[in-house]
Amino acid sequence: MIDQRMADSINDQINAEMFSAYLYQSMAAWFADQNFNGMATWMTAQAQEEMIHAMKFYNYLIERGGTVLLKQIDSPPTEWASPLAAFEAALDHERYITERINKMMDLAIDIRDHAAKGLLQWYVDEQVEEEANATDNVEKLRMVGDAGNAKYMLDKEFGTRPVLFTIPVSAAD
Ligand code: FEO
Questions:
Q1: Whose CA is nearest to atom 1 of ligand 1?
Q2: Are the CB atoms for 116 and 6 separated by under 8 Å?
Q3: For a Cys-Cys bond, which of 63, 64, 108, 148 suits 117, CB 3.0-4.6 Å?
Q4: What is the pLDDT of residues 11-51, one digit of tens each?
Q5: From ligand 1's centre to the CA of 19, what distance in Å?
């Protein structure tokens, strides 16, 4: 049976990962609104990945005999000053998530939950990749600056990221 402190921490992190999905889906909607459809696709794929992060914790908690408690998810922001500002906000958010994961690892070490340490190491490694990708995106946006042509090309590049699944727009699709 999982220690209640670790179960509580996992439930809080399920919420944080679902909020991440909300945040990135909100960015996707804003990008689509601004006609940056490639960046919208990139953010949709990112939102889908965040749901996988949430569900990996969810499945793990059930496997360890804990109780999943889904809590209220905060509303994300809905607009940003520029594409660069949105990607900078995404980088800040990933740094915040990394801090949370590191604290969870500290807890697992403190209470000698070796099984949770194994799971959390996956997230520690994943956060290295998440921060690297987010940093890379910010640097690309900074590089193109206000050059419309370069921004257009960059948007196309963002759009090559595959989404994990597509949702039909209407029942006929
Ligand atoms: Fe689930 Fe982007 O960290």
A1: 50
A2: yes
A3: 108
A4: 999 999 999 999 999 999 999 999 999 999 999 999 999 99
A5: 10
Q: How far is the CA of 3 from the centre of ligand 1 (A)?
A: 24
Residue ranges covered by each domain of the chain: 4-158
CA torsion angle 110 112 114 120 (round to 10): -20
Tell me: the pLDDT tens digits for 1-11? 899 999 999 99
Greatest Cα pair distance in the chain: 57
Amino acid at 100: R
**CATH code for the structural domain at 4-158:** 1.20.1260.10
Q: Are 91 and 135 spatial neighbours (Cβ–Cβ below 8 Å)?
A: yes
Residues in the chain: 173
